[in-house]
Amino acid sequence: xxxxxxxxxxxxxxxxxxxxxxxxxxxxxxxxxxxxxxxxxxxxxxxxxxxxxxxxxxxxxxxxxxxxxxxxxxxxxxxxxxxxxxxxxxxxxxxxxxxxxxxxxxxxxxxxxxxxxxxxxxxxxxxxxxxxxxxxxxxxxxxxxxxxxxxxxxxxxxxxxxxxxxxxxxxxxxxxxxxxxxxxxxxxxxxxxxxxxxxxxxxxxxxxxxxxxxxxxxxxxxxxxxxxxxxxxxxxxxxxxxxxxxxxxxxxxxxxxxxxxxxxxxxxxxxxxxxxxxxxxxxxxxxxxxxxxxxxxxxxxxxxxxxxxxxxxxxxxxxxxxxxxxxxxxxxxxxxxxxxxxx
Amino acid sequence: xxxxxxxxxxxxxxxxxxxxxxxxxxxxxxxxxxxxxxxxxxxxxxxxxxxxxxxxxxxxxxxxxxxxxxxxxxxxxxxxxxxxxxxxxxxxxxxxxxxxxxxxxxxxxxxxxxxxxxxxxxxxxxxxxxxxxxxxxxxxxxxxxxxxxxxxxxxxxxxxxxxxxxxxxxxxxxxxxxxxxxxxxxxxxxxxxxxxxxxxxxxxxxxxxxxxxxxxxxxxxxxxxxxxxxxxxxxxxxxxxxxxxxxxxxxxxxxxxxxxxxxxxxxxxxxxxxxxxxxxxxxxxxxxxxxxx
Lengths: 343, 293
Known about the structure:
The structure holds 2 protein chains of 2 kinds.
Chain A: H1 10-35, H2 39-53, E1 58-59, E2 65-66, H3 71-78, H4 80-98, H5 106-129, H6 138-163, H7 165-168, H8 183-216, H9 219-223, H10 232-247, H11 251-254, H12 265-270, H13 278-284, H14 302-330, H15 334-342
Antiparallel strand pairs in A: 1-2
Helix pairs in contact in A: 1-4, 1-5, 2-4, 3-4, 3-5, 3-6, 4-5, 5-6, 6-8
Chain B: H1 19-42, H2 52-68, H3 72-88, H4 93-102, H5 108-112, E1 125-132, E2 137-142, H6 143-169, H7 172-178, H8 186-216, H9 223-254, H10 271-290
Antiparallel strand pairs in B: 1-2
């Protein structure tokens, strides 16, 4: 995910520095207040740790291997502000001393991997683990999900930064000057790799390190991330955000066009494809959704049905999620026991 | 994760299969890479003789010029100008070429490849690859496609070359202190330096753990067991880092550290340094002006 120099226009690169700067300033203040002079070696060691972690090859089920970023686990142990600094420093050293990732693109890389990953990972972890005890095995699950979502958020942002390049930056003759593909290519291309391999690695690494720390050094999980404290507040905020987003769904009606890749037959024709793939008609009617076209016939107002569909969708996801986590806590904790035996 | 492993010396073909071997190879590479850079930086050469602040500002100016240029010829010219600089700085030229133009295509080349085709960049065809009437399939390399791909490849290659030259000709301790010229806070430079040192401590620890594991393994281990060992070793490393930071803090405190940081920068600009700074900045400005259309 390290963007090299040459992929982003100088304007984008500068903008990303500007976006990252306030986080940096705040992080330095926050961390100074938290630990004073102890901070210097702590941040340095964690930056070194995250540099080394990025070099570990993690075996995945199925035989492939991948690398983790480790920002989520760093945020869980250190809190998001200190983790942000540590991961940023690791990225700076990679760019300045090892030539990994661009120097001008550093602002973008720091924003994607250090800032977004630390915050998304940390708050999602805290929200998902709610008031459970620090050594609760449910937290492993929460950490894995947080790591998975965080790296995908970072990948999505990277894809957006890359994908807007051909929109804005072309020479007089119309040639793309930097990254040549638009959002419709960059987003699926980035997410394909991250929803599968990189996301899997991050989930495994975050979840399993968390499990290991719970067994061997649980006080590390309480100390800086404040995650041991009862945080009904975070939970409440999480729900609030979700409800706000839920009620913003009608905005979807204002957006012109259809979501990318969700075209119907007519839209494909409008897109100027020139032909309809032969398989399209054959499979078009194979799957009819229970709320076809998000339009419940009994209710004629499309906006109302749209919102109802959104609510139903969210409820379904929440039910599945809590069902899964309930199931997980019922399962005998086999992996944990075998790990203890090994140790 | 890494896209441009730029400055590693030529890698001998290693029979790397499992994650243990791959990770060990990665650790060795990082160590090798920094030793190689250190070795070249210690030699007497053109860029080694310059004030590190001049080199840092010069490299940044050139990177910005390369980034702004809308003209391929200008970017190529900047690249060609780095060649005599590399040669006069005793950077092995074969290595300098191969590092950038042989290894970069594996990533950036792969990305640039589809842009050649009419699917992504429509335009007049240079070479028609496929032309079938029924069903209609048409695939060609287009002229705008070639230009678009060239922009990406040449720009990335030149940027990487400039960065490599900076890293190879400047010792890391010196480069670190030179960062002060960019008004980086002293505490920050101190943390960067400590991080760099402890990366090697942790790399050694990780290397030992992996070697110990490898030397005790007979036969096959399930992937799940591998993962639980690996994450346990990451956990050990995390705990060690944490403990080490406490030790380092106590050591710093006992030597009188009270939170204030002072980085010594005892650089002195000579006339030659000023001339080179002027050359770098003027060259970059000219490149930006020439490359504006």
